[in-house]
Amino acid sequence: MEFKKVAVAIALSAGLASVGLQAAVNPGTPTDNSSTGTFDITLYNNSKIQIYGLEDVEINDTDGLPGTTDATGSTPVCVAANTDQFNISMSTAGGTFELTNTDSGSGAANIPYTLQLQDSAGSDVTDGLWGVGGNSSGVLSSEDLDVTTNDFNNVSACSGANSYSIVVAPDYTSADPGIYTGTAIVTVSPI
């Protein structure tokens, strides 16, 4: 029984302490005909962002000719946000931009690759390369990019003037035959 009294006393004192911090004004005495009070309104509209449109990339080099140009693949990427611009970074699940041969008995070396962000016209975005010769894993691009849409209810089609693509370019001209896999991570942040 004593515990309940202490708990109620703590709850009441906490409630009374928070009342003193409020800006609301309630009249202390009744008046004739009308009574007026005021209160402040505060809305915390936090930044919101959503990446969409990403697809798995399969690169199937069927010519098998050594020394020829490596094949590439790409995925669309779009961004919805309640801001006008965003930053992007790319990283990998393994920490390095390398594809690993799934045949563990082959002894084949990993294959390095790059990720290049391109705009809707297919042009490379400034500071939009990750991997060999570009940004390191997890490094944020210095380029401020325009969001695809501000409408979170319209994130089904990744297209339009502010849509992007990520080109995956593995360097496998001297690699052993096999199936090489990896996971790329794309992170977008509102500005």
Q: How many separate structural domains?
A: 1
Order of helices and strands: HEEEEEEEEEE
The CATH class turns out to be Mainly Beta
Query: Whole-Å distance between the termini?
Result: 55 Å
Helical residue percent? under 10%
Residue fraction in strands: 25-35%
Topology of this structure?
Blueprint: H1 2-19, E1 49-52, E2 73-81, E3 85-92, E4 98-101, E5 111-118, E6 124-131, E7 145-146, E8 164-170, E9 180-181, E10 184-190
Antiparallel strand pairs: 1-2, 2-8, 3-7, 3-10, 4-5, 4-9, 5-6, 5-8
Structure description:
This protein is mainly beta and 191 residues long. It has a single domain, classed as Immunoglobulin-like (Sandwich), CATH 2.60.40. It has one helix at residues 2-19; strands at residues 49-52, 73-81, 85-92, 98-101, 111-118, 124-131, 145-146, 164-170, 180-181, 184-190. Strands 1, 2, 4, 5, 6, 8 and 9 form a seven-stranded antiparallel β-sheet that branches. The chain has a three-stranded antiparallel β-sheet with strand order 7-3-10, with no helix packed on it. A hairpin with a 5-residue loop joins strand 5 and strand 6. The longest helix is centred in the N-terminal third of the chain and has 18 residues, at 2-19.
